[in-house]
Every structure is written in structure tokens, then in C-alpha cells.
Amino acid sequence: MRFGSLTLGAAALILLPNVQAAKADIADLVRGQSVSLSAVVDRIPDEDEIVLKDATGQILVYLGPAVQLPQIGETVVVEGVVDDDGPREINATRLIRADGSSQTLRGYE
What we know:
This protein is mainly β. The chain is globular and about 30 Å long. The chain has a five-stranded mixed beta barrel. The longest helix is centred in the first third of the chain and has 14 residues. The N terminus is likely disordered. Helix content is 13%, strand content 42%.
């Protein structure tokens, strides 16, 4: 029995690749893509969303509930996944502020 558990554990490790978020320009983002995006906060349309802008365009970022919003004009890094349906937006899982502070987010809720 123990051997089977070890085999299953080893198989799980093999099946779970080390996926790193692609660093990309806004114009190059693809639906379903994991991203790490550095851009400037252009607008804050709602208490749980920001609009980021870089030289190639802009994109809505859903941060989720109970987040400390960055300031307009602040350069931030957002990590997350580009939504695969509906409007083109990023569902954020992490926000890194200009001062280096970081928030883990629940952008899929």
C-alpha cells in the first residue's frame, strides 16, 4: 500500500509542471494565459477593479473583495490569469505595489 502512495505522489509531481507567469505587454495577452504584468494604474472603476495601462494598451483587472487599492498613476505588478470568457480582463491572484508590499488576492471569486 505504501509503495502505491509513493508512486502516486511521484506521478503527481511529474504531472504538475512548474508553470511560470509570462511577462507580457497588454496588447499581447491571450485568454487563459497566466501573466505577470507591470503597468500603471490608469483608472479605478469600482472598489474591486483597476484599469492598467502600458504603451500597448489597457486592461481591466479584477482584484476581488477587501483589497487595498493602489493609487492612480502608481506602477504595480499584477499576477493572475487572463479571463477565458466574457470581457477581456485579468483575474488577479497577487498585487505588488510600488513600495514592494504584496497582497494575495482572490480574483476568481
